[in-house]
Amino acid sequence: MSSSISSSKRFVIYLSSVCGILFFIFLWVMECYLRQQHLINKEKNDYKKRVLNGVAPWIALGDSHPADALTSTAWLDNLGQASDNIKSMERKLNVVISRRAGIKGVILQADPQLFSYYRLTASQSERVDDLIKDEDNLRLLILRSENRPYLVRLAWSLMQDPVKVVGSASANKVDVESKEESHEVKRKNEFEHRSVVVRVQLHTPVSNFIKHKDASTYRELVQMLISRNIKVCMVAYPVSQLYRQISAEPFTFQATRHYFQRLAEDTGAIFVDQNSALPDSAFGNPDHLLASEAPAFTNTLHHACGVGLIGSR
Amino acid sequence: MLFHDAVFVLIFLPLTICASLLLRRFCTQNAVVIFLAIASVFFYGYWNPNFVPLLTGSIVFNYCFGKYLLASKDQTKRKALLFLGITANLGLLIGFKYIGWIAEIVETLFGLSVKPTQLELPLGISFFTFLQIAYLVDASRRQVASTKFPNYFLFVTFFPHLIAGPLVHHQELIPQFERKLGCIWENLSVGLTIFGIGLFKKLILSDQVGVWSDSLFNSASAGIVPSMIDSWVGVISFALLIYFDFSAYSDMAIGLSKMFGIRLPENFNSPYKAVSIIDFWRRWHMTLSRFLRDYLYIPLGGNRSGFFRRYVNLMLVMLLAGLWHGASWKFVIWGGMHGGYLLINHAWNTMTNFKIFKPISVGITFIAVLFAWVPFRADTWQTAKTIYLNMLGFNGVVLPIHYQESLPETFTMWFVTHGVTFGATSVYGGAMQLMVLGSLLLFVFILPNTQQITSDFNPTLACVAPPTLRLFRWKPTRLGAIVMGVIGVYLLLLVVQGKSGEFIYFQF
Q1: Which of A148, B151, B396, B402 could form a disulfide with A197 if both were Cys (CB 3.0 to 4.6 A apart)?
Q2: Closest Cβ opposite residue B185 in set A9, A120, A204
């Protein structure tokens, strides 16, 4: 055997062994971790249940603003999900309407970031597909659509913190405690001027948003609900003072607010502007409420949207 | 099945390699050829089995027609038969790929409302049609050796090149099927390395810039006006995307083929290092350029019929090269722009001997290619126009609003007084993005390509790329295998994750 052949043979054997063994270990560790998480974290399943089998007469749609600011109660199923764009809101609404009779009202988010560049261009078709899909028969959790797109990110995070796999229950407890302790520090940091500016930049609506298809989709959504005698409550969610101050400058923030107000006037929807309703102490970061504020804010909307007037359950 | 699909990488490829090695050991070469042909048809049919009869029908027709052409002794008859054969092949291509577009032209020109059924495009139809046309032409010229049907079948369907090239020539591939090829271990080590490089380019390099490029072109298409900086970032990202995507595909095809002991022709030779457009077309999609030269440009008269005719021929070839990529005016515009560039380049060479400093000529060529990519990627002319206007600064300059906060006030004031505004940017993501783009451009302009890196093992037929420094040349070492194994795990996770898009050249 010539030396070239033997080195090639060695190369193939080493390569396939290293690659094969490491790959198998990674998959196995990730599967174990996901199984632990699957048992602990029921949040996703609860969300899915609310969308597919919820019974509340009102639903709330939108991104992390409603997701954080509202709690699901007997009268409301909060279907807000981080980063949802108008297309996702429309698809979720269609799913709910097709499966649930007797919806009395919908709380629609009416915040400028719905027309920001990253929302308008985000492709989120899989979000709703994943909700509808029945994957309980897929035995390996790593292959489920809710996990599969994030395998590399999961592998990285497990490599950075292997404790996660070794003892997830105790680690979770420590996590919660350390999270609470560091909460104040984090909040201070996140209120730093620069980080708020960057956030506002991300949320800045595009200049010609009115011509974008999402603007007409939003309008059609409101009109469709009104035509079905479903009450529509368009809500501008609260943001911190600094966020308001910085977002006052780009003209498109103001333009989108006018757009929502005009739309509510034209269609007979209720427009509830809570943009400056709460003090900075109510916020976990510049534009998201603390979880502890959610019940009170949900109650505020209960009154502002006139939920009681139509006899909720 | 795509080369970076989990099913392909984790199931189809290992099984096919193992089975072909076993057949090679225990059966005849003919059995290996038949097995690879069946595996290739399975590979093709996995995507859409409905097109398998079309593919096999086309192969049977061309094989029989080629035999008939070879047997025919009358030259006039051969010419008539060749015309018939080419018409049948082009008819198939037009029927599937161009009929809708032709109907649109007829409607625009004559006001006739013709609405033909737009059929789904069979994957790789342009490739398998063109390589069979070449076979028929050569058969009519009696430049084809008589071959067995399984060898011809595998020549057309061999899965590494079936869907997106390289556009192989029968004289390159069929003789290789007729003999036992090389050392298994060397084939596997070199093939796996080249395939791994291709997978890296596709899953890591190409997909990153793909996000930025899509951001620009999709949003401009949806009516969102990009800023000047967005336009440049997006267009450069697309140039890098198509470079890495096509280069990745070519590497993967060459690597896969090498694993089975078959060498494919080189298809991609660092095209952005080109010092002129003529040079660019010697480096970009080399097998398509070769096909167009041998089967279109030269039969049209090439440069033998005078100055004017040569330019007409060149322009015609480039327009058709554009059209080959798809039934759309945007590809015709792209081909026309490259045709125009080539005419200018030839005219320059005729008029002067003046040599431009190499980095400048590379830069000029790259910018010319960049401008041509705009209509190639944009879905409408309106989108391309919006991007052009913004690239040239006609719609003003917009910087991200957080720059207003982070830049010193003097700079901010200077920008404002010079008409710069601060607002939302769609693609531009800050200094880190520019650093990534810069690094990728350095990668493209400076580093040796895959053929140069693996040149010690001659993975391709007739390597065109000049040899590179010893430091960059690949050797099958233990350390190399371990490093590649670790990177391979990361790539395999990305493969299982399965978020990557298909290769751009699959649609052609």
Answers
A1: B402
A2: A9
Backbone dihedral angles phi then psi of residue B134, each to the nearest 5 degrees: -60, -40
Is it the case that residue A79 has pLDDT exceeding 60?
Answer: yes
Q: A148-189 pLDDT, tens per residue? A: 777 888 888 888 777 665 554 444 444 444 444 445 545 555
What ipTM score was computed for the predicted complex, to two decimals?
A: 0.81
pLDDT tens readout for residues A178-214? 444 445 545 555 456 667 777 787 788 887 788 888 9
Buried b / exposed e along B107-120 (16+ C-beta atoms within 10 A): eeeeeeeeeeeeee
CA distance B149 to A205: 62
Nearest-Cα residue of chain A relative to residue B488: A19
Q: Give contacts of B 40-99 with A, CB under 8 A.
A: none
A139 touches chain B (CB under 8 A): no
Report the alpha-carbon distance of residue A106 to residue A95 in Å, rounded: 14
Q: Distance (Å, rounded) from C-alpha A313 to C-alpha B331?
A: 60
A29 touches chain B (CB under 8 A): no
Q: Are strands A270-273 and B264-265 parallel, antiparallel or unpaired?
A: unpaired
pLDDT, one tens digit per residue, over B185-230 is: 899 999 999 999 999 998 888 877 888 888 888 878 877 778 888 8
DSSP code per residue over A219-280: HHHHHHHHHTT-EEEEEEPP--HHHHHHHTSSHHHHHHHHHHHHHHHHHT-EEEE-TT-S-G
Contacts within 8 Å (CB) and 24+ apart, A288-297: A288/A64, A288/A65, A288/A68, A288/A69, A289/A68, A289/A69, A289/A237, A289/A238, A291/A68, A293/A69, A294/A68, A294/A69, A294/A70, A294/A71, A295/A71, A297/A69, A297/A70, A297/A238
Buried b (16+ CB within 10 A) or exposed e, B33-62: bbbbbbbbbebbbebeeebbeebbebbeeb
Residues of B in contact with A250 (CB under 8 A): 401, 423-424
Cβ–Cβ contact B188 with A under 8 A: yes
- Angstrom CA distances, B155 to B17, B152, B222, stand at 18, 5, 43
From the candidates B285, B325, B338, B346, which is the catalytic residue? B325
pTM score of the predicted model:
0.76
Chain B residues with beta carbon closer than 8 angstroms to that of A121: 215, 218-219, 222, 224, 426
Chain A and chain B share a number of CB contacts under 8 A equal to 141
State whether A8 and B494 contact (CB < 8 Å). Answer: no
CB contact under 8 A, A193 and B405: yes
Is the CB of residue B142 less than 8 Å away from at least one CB of chain A? no
Considering only CA atoms, give the Rg of chain B.
24
d(CA B276, CA B355) in angstroms, rounded, equals 11
DSSP secondary structure letter of residue B295:
I
Side-chain-side CA neighbours of B56 within 13 Å: the count stands at 13
Identify which of A150, A193, A206 has the shortest CB distance to residue B224.
A206
Nearest chain B residue to A148, by CA: B497
| CB-based contact B226:B216 (threshold 8 Å) | yes
Name the CA radius of gyration of chain A, rounded. Answer: 23
Q: Are B137 and B295 in contact (CB under 8 A)?
A: yes
Whether B325 is a known active-site residue: answer yes
- Residues 6+ away with beta carbon under 8 Å from A175: none
B220 touches chain A (CB under 8 A): no
- Measured between alpha carbons, how far is B348 from B103 in angstroms, rounded to an integer? 39
Q: Cis peptide before B166, with omega less than 30 degrees from 0?
A: yes
Is B207 within 8 Å of B500 (Cβ atoms)? Answer: yes
CA atoms within 13 A on the CB side of B330: 16
Instruction: Find which of B484, B496, B500 to mutate to test the A interface (most A CBs within 10 Å of its CB).
Output: B496
Please answer whether residues B226 and B427 qualify as being in contact, where contact means their C-beta atoms are separated by less than 8 angstroms.
Answer: yes
- Give the other-Cβ count within 10 Å of B483's Cβ: 13
